[in-house]
């Protein structure tokens, strides 16, 4: 096994040449595409793109009471930890040319009776998993449930319906192994994928941990093929890792038994320059961004996913939540988090934005 401190230069320049050509056009074209490209299926009806729209005030929101949902972690429970404003709870996503169905937890349980749904990813998957649990629970508050949690895996079963919501925590989707040289992030390996098989629905997510450095970087080396790298351009690494995930889907998913979703890149709001307020972050934000176009543009990770999805041979439903989430600079916990000290502009309050992600998931699942 060889060691290297740098990535392959030819791949590096080829990769970024492609990105420079496609970043803007890909974001525009995919936002309006209602068809199928490669293995990706856009979550839009033939007459309406669900991801183009605006945030509108809705007096009937939020969709559940945070004080009555037993599944919210302190990290996301903004009201419990002192957030004083309520306006952020009152926004509903409204597509430009149609309306999304309202979430019905009882309908969800009846339609999914006896089935297993697994969220696979990092803490943003936890955010979404807990949101779905609360949405369902609000419809059947007296239903019997069993909640089991252990390191890296959680399972919530609504006993009367046999519906199980599972959460498998993995920051990268590809394997992170402890070896003699240290912690190795294996860009071409998904042995842990055996834990994902047999599910009726899989919902994947991965991005935020790929950029972490220094003391919060959870690996010592990256491995690609038979070579170890002390580091690598993180966008190149992400492309390689997500390409490995796409190969796993192609090899192991049977579309007649398992529906696969990928929840798109969840944005952060640490830098106010992204929305025209250079000295600000998500802290103290109380309203969405209302401009016609988000000044920060699409994250490069969004473009990478577009390229990866072209490698898919099996249908994967893309929850393209990036653009609509970029507008919600007001929806983060910021200082109102029970176990995330400082200013959290990465995760999302519950109730809040992940509920919209799940409304989109619900709409696609039953459309």
TrEMBL record:
Regarding protein family, the annotation reads: Belongs to the PC-esterase family. TBL subfamily.
Keyword Transferase included in the entry's annotation: no
- Name of protein: Trichome birefringence-like N-terminal domain-containing protein
Residues of the Trichome birefringence-like N-terminal domain: 47-99
Superkingdom classification of source: Eukaryota
Q: By its UniProt entry, which Pfam families does this protein fall under?
A: PC-Esterase, PMR5N
Where does the UniProt annotation locate this protein?
Membrane
Record's bilayer topology term = Single-pass membrane protein
What residue stretch is flagged as signal peptide?
A: 1-26
| Species assigned in the record | Brassica cretica
What PANTHER family does the entry give? GENOME ASSEMBLY, CHROMOSOME: A05, PROTEIN TRICHOME BIREFRINGENCE-LIKE 9-RELATED
């Amino acid at each position: 096994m060889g060691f290297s401190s740098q990535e392959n230069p030819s791949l590096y320049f080829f990769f970024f040449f492609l990105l420079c050509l496609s970043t803007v056009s890909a974001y525009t074209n995919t936002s309006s595409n209602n068809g199928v490209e490669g293995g990706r299926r856009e979550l839009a009806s033939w007459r309406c793109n669900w991801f183009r729209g605006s945030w509108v005030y809705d007096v009937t929101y939020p969709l559940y009471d945070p004080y009555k949902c037993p599944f919210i972690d302190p990290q996301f429970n903004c009201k419990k930890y002192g957030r004083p404003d309520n306006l952020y709870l009152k926004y509903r996503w409204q597509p430009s040319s149609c309306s999304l169905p309202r979430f019905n937890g009882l309908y969800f349980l009846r339609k999914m009776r006896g089935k297993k749904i697994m969220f696979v990813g990092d803490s943003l998957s936890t955010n979404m998993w807990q949101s779905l649990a609360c949405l369902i629970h609000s419809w059947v508050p007296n239903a019997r449930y069993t909640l089991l949690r252990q390191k890296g895996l959680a399972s919530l079963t609504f006993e009367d319906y046999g519906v199980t919501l599972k959460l498998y925590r993995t920051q990268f989707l590809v394997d992170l192994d402890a070896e003699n040289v240290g912690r190795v992030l294996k860009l071409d390996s998904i042995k842990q994928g055996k834990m994902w098989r047999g599910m009726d629905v899989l919902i994947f997510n991965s991005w935020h941990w790929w950029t972490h450095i220094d003391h919060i970087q959870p690996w010592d080396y990256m491995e690609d093929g038979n070579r170890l790298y002390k580091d690598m351009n993180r966008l190149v690494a992400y492309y390689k890792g997500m390409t490995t995930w796409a190969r796993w889907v192609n090899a192991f998913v049977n579309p007649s038994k398992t529906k696969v979703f990928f929840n798109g890149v969840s944005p952060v709001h640490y830098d106010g320059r992204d929305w025209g307020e250079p000295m600000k972050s998500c802290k103290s934000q109380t309203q969405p961004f209302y401009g016609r176009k988000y000044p920060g543009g699409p994250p490069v990770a969004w473009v990478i996913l577009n390229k990866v999805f072209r490698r898919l041979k099996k249908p994967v439903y893309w929850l393209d939540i990036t653009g609509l989430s970029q507008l919600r600079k007001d929806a983060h916990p910021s200082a109102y988090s029970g176990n995330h000290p400082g200013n959290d502009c990465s995760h999302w309050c519950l109730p809040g934005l992940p509920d919209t992600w799940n409304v989109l998931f619900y709409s696609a699942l039953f459309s």
